[in-house]
Amino acid sequence: MSIQLLLVDDHEMVREGFRLRLDKEPDIQILAEANNAVEAIRLSKELEPDIVLMDIAFTENDINGIVATRKIKIVNNNIQIIALSTYSDLVYVKEMFNAGARGYVLKEGTFSDLIKAIRTVAKGQIYVSESVNSALLTDFFRSKQQSLNPPKQLLTRQEVKVLQFIAKEYNPKEIADKLSIQVKTVIAHRTNLKKKLGISTEAGLTKYALREAMITLDD
Known about the structure:
Layout: E1 3-8, H1 12-22, E2 28-34, H2 37-47, E3 51-55, H3 65-75, E4 80-85, H4 90-99, E5 103-106, H5 111-122, E6 127-128, H6 130-148, H7 157-167, H8 172-179, H9 183-197, H10 202-211
Parallel strand pairs: 1-2, 1-3, 3-4, 4-5, 5-6
């Protein structure tokens, strides 16, 4: 049984190029075409295609492909959406996937990339163009690293001072005297530091302070 598609793009030449290439694939059938998001939503309701190839941005005053994707998924969650886009910016990628898309293909890519995306999504899997996938992985590992090494900006000015004294092996009473605050306030700051930084010991706090150059070994 062929994979039934709805092709959505506001440029007729773009749709024609996709149609000419996709018509050569025996397992892929284009049911209809839409030149705007509103028409795409209507045709999705009427035809119930397996996959909608959805442009993200439309030149006319129209809702965008992200909104259309969300509306189509509300009407029929069984319809899968593949974004066709000139945008490799991860903001658009994430917005499309948050809206319910299962694939993201760059228009500048090859037709074989698009065909692979269609067949992959038809099997219930997710597909993104290689360059987008690389950017997503980079973003993921950057976020992971940030979660493992929380930024100093999370800390208040007084928490930073308390951390510096902890790293210098001052006890709570000594820190309280240095900062002219109560001991219980120092203890509260120490507890907050551990929670914010995901660190359970004072030795760990010291290592963090050294790694972030908040103190030096000579201090």
